[in-house]
Specification:
Layout: H1 10-17, H2 21-28, H3 36-48, H4 55-62, E1 67-72, H5 78-93, E2 97-102, H6 107-119, E3 124-127, H7 137-144, E4 148-152, E5 162-166, H8 168-181, E6 187-190, H9 197-213, E7 222-223, H10 229-240, E8 248-251, H11 254-266, E9 276-280, E10 294-297, H12 300-315, E11 326-329, E12 332-334
Parallel strand pairs: 1-2, 1-3, 3-4, 4-5, 5-11, 6-7, 6-8, 8-9, 9-10
Antiparallel strand pairs: 10-12
Helix pairs in contact: 1-2, 1-3, 2-3, 5-12, 8-9, 10-11
Length: 341
């Protein structure tokens, strides 16, 4: 294995030019204390020796790194990928970089990601919690290390922080209303882990909508911990073969909606004729399959922009006060074939 060559430093430049390292540093930072002639000498020598300025070291001397850490459950879901893209768009405008960590829905990986970002001395940590997360000690550790901290989408109310979320109760309310307007009356609810706040809010909106619309609430139609396509398929098969069957499903994930659709095919049922389906997140595949899947558009890209803007406009400028801010991002029902009779 070839030996790795030593990286060129300002001390190497200074030795080559026979000037003080401090003069090289000032020249590289375009200091008014250094003449144009010296700056040109340093610039030329830097190019000759392939010197790359260590901005991280310079930023550390100033007390910040211009790096933001982002922790998400899954990078390969378009919802989170779009959030990251929105965050990056704003960060680029401020000349900030991102370190992106994926937990794969594991609390252990989430804790390790937080530790890694703290060690990297990032300026801020942006996090959406894993499905396993029920403890908050690692989140408090972020604050203990005086690192700015914003939660988004899946958040813990137990931790005092800025948050960027959808109005999840209103979103599921509108989803149920849409299904009812299409003539569905026996609507099942497939939610996620009950300990997470957003699923509590979505179930609340579901129940409120049933009540306001005069539809019957059936406890047997409500299932928590449905987090995958396979979970959705199995639970839908069970409900659709029961004596009392639902005629529609509100799923808090588009991937779970896929499972419901698979169950319909197994039972020779069709959507939307026999069963209505609506999911959450408006993943890319929802418009590509047959029937196309209705979904709640959570405007994930815009959410990412709002997260970053919250940091640069308020958090970074020390506008924090006793009342932390929660930003609500709009939602919209995207009506497609699976719920349109």
């Amino acid at each position: 294995m070839a030996k790795r060559e030593k990286r060129i430093t300002i001390y190497d430049l200074a030795k080559s030019l026979n000037i003080a390292p401090s003069s090289v540093s000032k020249a590289l930072n375009n200091s008014h204390a250094i003449s144009s002639k010296i700056k040109k000498m340093v610039e030329d020598k830097a190019k000759e020796l392939n010197y790359i300025h260590n901005t991280n070291a310079a930023n550390l001397r100033r007390g910040f790194t211009r790096i933001i850490g982002v922790i998400v459950p899954k990078i390969n879901e378009s919802f989170f990928a779009n959030i990251i893209a929105g965050i990056e768009k704003v960060c680029v405008q401020y000349q900030y970089s991102l370190i992106i960590c994926q937990t794969e829905e594991s609390l252990e990986k989430e804790v390790n990601a937080v530790k890694t970002l703290i060690r990297q001395n990032v300026d801020c940590i942006l996090i959406s919690l894993s499905l396993e997360t029920q403890t908050t000690a690692h989140l408090e550790e972020i604050k203990n290390n005086h690192i700015h901290f914003i939660q988004f989408d899946r958040v813990s109310p137990a931790v005092d922080s800025y948050t960027v979320v959808n109005d999840n109760a209103a979103a599921s309310y509108q989803a149920v209303k849409h299904l009812a307007e299409q003539g569905y009356q026996k609507i099942a609810y497939f939610g996620g882990p009950a300990h997470l706040n957003l699923y509590q809010e979505r179930k609340k909106g579901y129940k409120n909508a049933l009540k306001d619309l005069g539809l019957t609430f059936n406890e047997a139609f409500v299932k928590d911990e449905i987090i995958s396509t396979e979970n959705g398929r199995q639970e839908a098969l069970s409900l659709l073969q029961a004596d009392v069957k639902p005629d529609a499903f509100l799923c808090t994930s588009d991937y779970v909606s896929l499972g419901v659709l698979e169950a319909l095919k197994t039972l020779n049922l069709t959507s939307p004729k026999d069963i209505g389906i609506i999911g959450f997140a408006n993943e890319m595949f929802t418009q590509l399959i047959q029937p196309s899947l209705s979904s709640v558009n959570q405007f994930s890209y815009e959410m990412g922009e709002q997260i970053a803007k919250l940091y640069f406009d308020e958090v970074m400028k020390n506008k924090e006060n006793d009342k932390v801010k929660s930003v609500k991002v709009k939602t919209e029902i995207v009506e497609r074939s699976s719920s349109s009779r």
